[in-house]
């Protein structure tokens, strides 16, 4: 609920004061974010852990993070698909309605006119088609290319953790126990 409120406030703030064309571009970006995270979530459930162990043995950056993603695929996919993906879908619908209203008012149509209704149906249909079609393509892509997708996400998490000191994953307590044992 908090993430939805934050994203909604940000999208409303960004959309206020922009033209309808820029607003539609923002809506498309929001749709793309939803498709992107849905693809990553599906890839995490389709990925096999073994290739990442081989990569980790070769000390490839991000391989250990990819192992953590595949081990926690249920939670990772839940966050990507259900939290980010669904919130993006809701916000894109709301933002699309805002853009339709802006366009209708700019063209001189009232909120209850048949022209505004037609514009609303057209924009809503386009956003829905892009969302559903994009997610369908993303899921197909995620199933066929799960290993490279999750490895790239693992590399991104590695960069966030090592270079920027932003830790998004814990090592399930295993490293902490090992560290405690080696200190004695």
Main attributes?
mainly alpha
Order of helices and strands: HHHHHHHH
Shape: elongated
Strand tally, please?
0
Question: Main sheet?
Answer: none
Average pLDDT reading: 86
| C-alpha Rg (nearest Å) | 21 Å
What percentage of amino acids are in beta strands?
A: under 5%
Low-pLDDT runs of 5+ residues are: 173-184
Task: Report the end-to-end length measured between terminal Cα atoms.
Answer: 44 Å
User: Percentage of helical residues?
Assistant: over 70%
The number of helices is: 8
> What would you call the structural class?
mainly alpha
Number of domains: 1
Explain how this protein is built.
α2 (about 20-45) runs antiparallel to α5 (about 75-105). This protein has helices spanning about 1-15, 20-45, 50-55, 65-70, 75-105, 115-145, 145-160, 175-184. The chain contains 8 helices and no strands. It has about 180 residues and is mostly helical.
List the helices and strands and how they pair.
Layout: H1 2-15, H2 20-46, H3 50-57, H4 63-71, H5 73-107, H6 114-144, H7 146-162, H8 174-183
Helix pairs in contact: 1-5, 2-5, 2-6, 2-7, 3-4, 4-7, 5-6
Summarize it.
The protein is an all-alpha fold. About 80% of the residues lie in helices and about 0% in strands.
């Amino acid at each position: 609920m908090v993430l939805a409120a934050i994203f909604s406030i940000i999208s409303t703030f960004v959309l206020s004061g922009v033209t309808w064309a820029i607003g539609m571009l923002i809506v498309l970006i929001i749709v793309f974010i939803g498709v992107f995270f849905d693809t990553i979530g599906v890839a995490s459930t389709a990925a096999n852990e073994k290739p990442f162990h081989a990569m980790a043995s070769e000390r490839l950056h991000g391989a250990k993070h990819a192992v953590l993603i595949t081990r926690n695929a249920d939670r990772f996919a839940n966050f990507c698909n259900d939290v980010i993906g669904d919130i993006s879908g809701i916000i894109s619908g709301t933002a699309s309605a805002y853009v339709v209203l802006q366009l209708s008012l700019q063209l001189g149509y009232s909120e209850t006119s048949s022209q505004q209704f037609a514009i609303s149906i057209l924009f809503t249909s386009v956003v829905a088609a892009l969302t559903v079609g994009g997610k369908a393509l993303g899921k197909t892509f995620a199933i066929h290319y799960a290993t490279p997708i999750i490895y790239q996400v693992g590399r991104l998490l590695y960069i966030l953790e090592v270079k920027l000191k932003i830790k998004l994953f814990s090592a399930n307590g295993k490293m902490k126990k090992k560290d405690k044992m080696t200190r004695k």
